[in-house]
Amino acid sequence: MPGVLRGIKYEDPLVIYRGEKVIDTVKKLSKGTAKVELDLAIDTYYSMYLPLPVLIHPNEVPYGKEKNYTVIRELIDSDVLRELKSYTLINSVLSTLLSASFLQHLHDELSFSPREGNEPGKFDEYVDEGTLRRAVNNALKYVKEEGEVLKNIERILSEGNEAGIGSLLDLEESAEDVLRLARSTDVRKLLEVSSLIPNVSHRIKRKSIKSSKGELHGYELGSDIERLVPTELIYPEIYFYIKISDGKLLLYDKELPENLGPLYVLLDKSGSMEGEKIKWAKATAIALFIKSRRERREYFIRFFNGSPHQLIRISKRMRGDDVIKFMDYLARVKSGGGTDITKALMTACEDIKYGVSKGVTDVILITDGEDRISEHLIRKKLKSLGIRLITVMIMGENRDLRDISSKYLRAIKLSQKEIIQIIET
């Protein structure tokens, strides 16, 4: 199973695993129609993964691998691959995904039927070098577009991470679905609004409470003996008791992260939200998703117009299919229809009351407020469930919502600054 790259140990189990992962993804993407040789899959992966992949000398090319050599040579020499390196370099996840995408697109570009006597997965011996070169370059154009989308998705996911709260979602687990998501026109349009999403991670400080069992943050004075610094015990007993009574014992300052309830987002998708309003609202929903990850909170989102739509839930330890569902949901939603804010809020309250979204304390309503609400009914329901309503009013005004909201924010310019204001509440 020799390939055409120098320095690759093709018999190494890890190398074989990488190639098989690419092949498996190609099969799923093409529904079994595209067949790829293992050595070609390995060579494609390492061409993307390594900083400077080196081809073997043309005289060393194994018999029957001449077409593979042409493909990998054209791939390595491509300016598009140099751009893709900013995504794939030493990144096993994106190298796997984009290698599979490239090989599937290459298969579609050639779209040949193996002639009698040719082995499945090998290039047709009648495919000339010029055709192969054109196919490689055409396939790379598609891969470049998909790479930009995947990098945006990875960026959004990684912004919610910090040491100790979980690793980056392994996109390889859902490789087929992730690539189909990257090829969706709706998803690409959604990610066009990613420029509106500020870098919120450094602005979100996880709330904490003092605890003798927490992590050490420093020192302070007080009388909590459980957090006593041992050196205080060297004082004579009388001085020790005086320091207790005066609250001047030297203590460890220990804190535990506060366990916050889930975030529940209600997002207006009525006809009046069309255009910039819905784009900004979606960007805000993504920023709040990042906030929920940073604070280790479950995240719920429900769109509504004249009636509430499907509720999407992402757990603290999100899975690949959770995020794919979330991104696909956001991308597909279009503005349209009437507005019933009362029904949307009552549905959110019912979700919380009956445990569908257990533990929710914050409901964030994003709307332009073009509707009359049943103020008394909603106020009573929110109070009975202990829910804090945060209303984000987009280029509008609603006095009733202002009266019943714990916080009432107005977004007028639809800028990053206003998104930051929301995530800091």
Could you list some keywords that capture this structure?
single chain; 425 residues; alpha/beta; Rossmann fold; 3 domains; 6-stranded mixed beta sheet; two-stranded antiparallel ribbon; 46% helix; flat
List the helices and strands and how they pair.
Layout: H1 13-29, H2 38-49, H3 66-77, H4 79-88, H5 92-110, H6 129-158, H7 175-182, H8 185-191, E1 208-222, H9 237-246, E2 249-257, E3 263-268, H10 276-294, E4 299-304, E5 308-314, H11 320-332, H12 341-353, E6 362-367, H13 375-385, E7 388-394, H14 399-404, E8 407-411, H15 416-423
Parallel strand pairs: 3-4, 3-6, 6-7, 7-8
Antiparallel strand pairs: 1-2, 4-5
Helix pairs in contact: 1-2, 1-5, 1-7, 2-3, 2-5, 3-6, 4-6, 5-6, 8-11, 10-15, 12-13
